[in-house]
Amino acid sequence: MTLPPEGHPRYKSLIAREKLVEATDVVAKQGLIAHGRGEAFDYLLGEQTCPPAIRSIKAAASLIRVASSPVISVNGNVVALAAKEVAHLSEASGAKVEVNLFHRTSERVAGLTKMMDEVGIQALGMNPDDKIPGLSSERARCCSEGIGSADVVLVPLEDGDRCQALVEMGKQVITIDLNPLSRTAQTAHITIVDELTRCLPLLTDAIRDGVKVDDFDNKKNLKEVLAFICARLS
Ligand code: ATP
Ligand code: MG
Which end of the chain is more exposed for a tag (fewer CB within 10 A), N or C? Predict the structure, then answer.
């Protein structure tokens, strides 16, 4: 990896780009475009975890804690950027990890499974035996012992179609998405509008701390995020 000079004002951002570029055998090219869109929204947020995101992190922690079969669905961007953070979240919550790809090839699933293996997680996904109804062929494939039978699914950086399909299956869906306007952000039950690597440790800590939230309104929370961005822009 080509390291940017320490103290560079965009150090973290440059490291994230390097990680994704380095993982281009497992990260689809479309994933690089999605990353750029995320960066643009993070700029608008001031590259910080905003107060409404803190509230949605707490609500997500509360839901994951009471779940009987929680699953973290990971794609190329998520593993390339945050394999370790996902491993810590899985350990703290007992959630299984499943590799689930929009642009699915068995080579990419195998590569990502190996990367999760290197951080101590046996991820599901190599032998999908189940389907998410309403999605076309390869994108629909999932594992019956993972997403297929999950009650709560965390889908960071997810596509709107798959998020909608999971909601229609009756899953409780949590997403992490920097774009508060994306279909995914608007469709999930709990949307954490924050950068992946910044919010995963906060979510893990909230689970370890036994955080409990009784009521949460996702639409209201998203409006608060937009108000936060507008206030910064004006
Ligand atoms: P949708 O399908 O939900 O309408 P989209 O088509 O605009 O959204 P996708 O490529 O399907 O986008 O999903 C990727 C999402 O992940 C984008 O909304 C992007 O802003 C977000 N994203 C990218 N990188 C990060 C990151 N590091 N942390 C959090 N969110 C991110
Ligand atoms: Mg999409």
Answer: C
